[in-house]
Amino acid sequence: MRTEVAIIGAGPAGLLLAHLLAQDGVESIVVETRTQEYVAARIRAGILEHSSVELLRSVGLGANIDAHGDEHRGIYLQWPHERHHLDFVDLVGRSVWVYGQTQVQADLVAASEAAGRHVVYGVSDTAVHDLDTDRPSVTFTDADGVQQRIEAEVVVGCDGSFGVSRSAVPETVRETWERVYPYSWLGILADVPPSTDELIYAWHPDGFALHSMRSDTVSRFYLQVPNGTDVTEWSDDRIWDGLATRLGHDQDGWQLTPGPITDRSVLPMRSFVQQPMRHGRLFLAGDAGHIVPPTGAKGLNLAIADVALLAPALSALLRKRESGLADAYSDTALRRVWRCEHFSWWMTSMLHTSDDPFDAQLQLSQLRWVTSSSAGASGLAENYAGLAIGF
Ligand code: FAS
Ligand code: PHB
Predict the structure, then answer these.
(1) Quick check: helix, strand or coil at residue 369?
(2) Cβ of 5 below 6 Å from ligand 1
(3) What is the pLDDT of residues 314-370, one digit of tens each?
(4) Nearest Cα residue to atom 7 of ligand 2
């Protein structure tokens, strides 16, 4: 097969990149190890930044966000006996949207199918070749067991944190940073209306908790748990008791309403960055280049920001033979990546408890400052609601 851009991975980064390239008439082929149904069913991110929503709207992907998304002015920060609302619109003039990654993925798949774009699901043995030439290629075994090769002008790794493209950058060239956190998140989806109008991020001596949502009938919750936690160790009652305690049930009359749990999983927490995000004719985008702990709701938004930068860079390279944007892509993308890495670490460190009582005092002081100082609140608001793409 021949195309202009071979994309590895049909998650949000891969499918959005194909969509953005097509806006400029640039052809692509996407290859994906999983089935379309598997990718669509993964329950992941829940928050879209202001600039993500604006970008998706600008390329015809905003209708469902406007019809089914829920615009939020801010979040609540909570600790025992206190809950404070941060209003991002008052603070920095930007809101966020509750619109799950599964919904974003469904919209991208629908647009891809409507446009008849070439996405190959169920592949295996993906490999990249000749990245330092102007004829790179991707080989794989298709779902029928047939060896295939895609000859392209550019290869983009959108294959997430366990893909093959990251390691295709020679060890002598790549630089990586990683931080593994001493705790994980136990996440549940429940068929119960949210007990709050906007997200509650709660600090508690027992551990962090987050009350999020997917719609007015489905709620999403997370609990800080030790690394290695087996989800079967947490009965429904233990989960709801833990959430009620940490989120302040009966505090100032507020009540947490439990309901049937329809999905549960344990998510390890880590920060990771690999640079450069380009090597020869290979570019990395999304989780293939970086990972953030989900406390700052940045993972999906960073993937969107990467491809929003990369698409025009590749269009200029392939249509006008102008390489300036492509040459600058890695540095430009990494500036936002490191800003989001810092913010995600900052939110995670502020809200997750350890056994160190000194840490607890520092965290409570930080929470009191962020919720009482306009400077502190604006700093959180600016980063959470998101910076302009290309920052
Ligand atoms: P993705 O991982 O979504 O997509 C990569 C795709 O590449 C996958 O479909 C994979 O099957 C495919 N692939 C991998 N190797 C391949 C190969 N060799 N050949 C072909 N295809 C290959 N972010 C938040 O903001 N909030 C959250 O609550 C949150 N929860 C998360 C929970 C989990 C379990 C995980 C793993 C991530 C979570 N994230 C969350 C982050 C997540 O939303 C990512 O940031 C987002 O999916 C990034 O999108 P992509 O870069 O497209 O990577
Ligand atoms: C979610 O709704 O899944 C979600 C929201 C905010 C976060 C992380 C996850 O920081």
Answers:
(1) helix
(2) no
(3) 999 999 999 999 999 999 999 999 999 999 999 999 999 999 999 999 999 999 999
(4) 297
